[in-house]
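Follow-up to my post from last week.
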Amino acid sequence: MSSAAIETVPRFRRGGWMFLLPAAIPFVAFVLWPLIHGVALGFFDVQLRETRFIGLENYHRLIGDETFWAAVKNTCGFVVLVVPTVWVLSLGVSAVVFPMGRWARSFFRFAFYVPVVAGGVCLAMVWLWIFDQRYGLLNHVTGSLLGLEFDWLGRTDTALPSLAVVVISWSLGQPIIIFLAALGGIPPELYEAARIDGAGPLRRFWHVTLPLLRPASLFVLVTQTIGVFQVFVVVLLLTVNGGPAHGTRTIVYGMYETAFTPMYDFDYAAAQGSVLLVALGTIAILQFRLLGRKTRLD
Amino acid sequence: MTGFRHTRRQWLASLPVLGLSAWSGCSRQRPVRDSRGRVIVEYWHQPMVQQVPEFGDEVKEVGDFERFLARRFMAENPDIVIRTQCLNWEDLPRKVPISVLGGRPPDVLMDYVGRTSGFWYQGVLEPLDELVEGIEHDFQPRMFEASRLVGSDGVRRLHAVPLCGWVQVLVLNRAAWDSQGLGDLLPTDEDPRWRWDQFETALEAIAGPGVTPLGMQCASEQGDYRVLQYFWAFGAEVYHDRDYSRVALNSPQGVAALEWLVKAKRKGWIQSNVATAGYGFFDMFWRGQTVAIPSGVSMRRTYENALRDGKITADFNGDGRVDMEVFYTLPPTRPEVPTTLPVSTNGLVVFRQEDPDRREAAMRFVKFLTSTETVGHYARASQMLPGRKSVGPIFADQPDVTRILDLAAECPVADMGATSPSYYDIRKRMPPYLQSAFLGLKTPAEALAGFEREAEGVLRGQLASTQSVGHPGEESAQ
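User reply:
Got it. Predicted complex:
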């Protein structure tokens, strides 16, 4: 190696770091530092004027907090309702749309992605009207067809599933785009070979498409699980304080309420956030372990 | 690589600028004076006053009145500049504590003493006794006492100067009964008090398809005094004998009250969506879907605004004309139970000041805002009870209001624990249990036991925190 090359490498490395700075500075300032600070906050009692170390007291409090456990139960309910449904629906839609022509495919891609672009707040407000007991579209339909009207968001048995429907409606776009792209990456020869071997459409889907979509599925499942564990906007906008009777309260909503409604319990909210962080990390690792064993992510 | 050297140089050159920006952006202290040397005082307030007819176009929107007052004050005090900010009801409980944590609270805040008391217990407010020296007797005793709290030194001090207040009564739309020839079931103008059986008969008579007479909200802690009014009617208490170390709602009277409320909902006397109902029940009142709601005597002003906005559509006999007549009554109580009413106080607080000039300016501004003249303006504009006696009667043109306030003045004040250290923490935990009872998920006894259990946990934690940091846990007499 020449001396010029030896000099260039460290200089290049320094330059590389400089390129990273525009992304790294906001990441450290707005993600990493708040994360560390948030975890640390959980071990303190934060008052408006003073802060004192209290060790694991907040975590002991969490164990006996019925409201927190109700939030955990509801959040898990959301995950169970939303994640598999989104996976199945987005995969199904992608499988139907993929063989269509270029224009039709673009149209459906656009149609399903619109809710992602529209944003959660706009959609939540639209759904609020749909669910309205007196003037809502849903009750108009059920009233006309079945003669039944429900207070969809006012009953504990319908409120959580109703919110899950809203979350599903805006969660489909991204997985569909991912699945369509992944479907395009499957070599057509594999389908030809399967067809020559006498495999019908279902067997081809089961034995060719699904295994080869495993990396995309893993990505969708992990990102959806993380996203749904953080459900917040829909609870804030469609319910009052995660009601009725804590029936729609989620962990993140509980954190928000604990910290920013007049309880000022920032440290306790931070402890809840730390628990969520650990739970999400564990679930993501488990998903990678269980689904990623036979998956080549390259 | 030359390009990198150049970039680094630029970075280095810009470092002082970046540092300066960061320093100015992160600085915890606001400047004391503006460029003209005037002391800056930040005044944040509730959206209490919307329109003041006597000031014409100058006061038409929320926040106009406070700006108008600030201008008048600044004209008399050219060395001070007042910057007003109107916070909406949702921002009030969030923005102020965040501003305190960020080290940049307002200098003066006008809010409900149930909220400001929390700041007092956190030790971030100035005691204001000096502002009322010699004029203590001019303040309404109930409001004045509610504003005096024990400080960290164990001495009771004035944490807020009372501005206005309200007392809860039961507001009826009398036209609902009159239009159906049922007016005899109601109390009279001369004696607007109910007997309990009379109250139930009147509800039974008016309830029907499209009308659930009692308007109620229990979606959140907001307006909880409306539901609690029926607990007080049964003789239940939130706290007993000013003992704020435990809630007393889970009592035989409390269970009986909640059982009555649940039955009332089943009978169609309370709206079916009560578990998730917020302020929407006011609209139900304008539409004639509810006809009796606990509220303050400002209801007539609210009605006039709603009428102007075209919100009133109540029409009980289908003649195409609006049927609405606001009628104030005392909330009913069970036999042998005295009528207990919640009284609320809005006051002005001053956040702790390090700069003596700004402290002095803030105090001067509060003194101006709580002068007899300004309190009178506030009270007339908001139709609330003035905090100072010297304002005189402001409801002279409304004899029914004068009568109901005279009756209310004789009633004991309901103790919601509004100025106790855990007020909001406890208050927030009650609605989910009431909702469980209304939705049939829990029996009234189970719901109140659950609430008591959760409240006990909060109070235990509060007690531990109080002992460790030396905050007093006492509450003033209301």
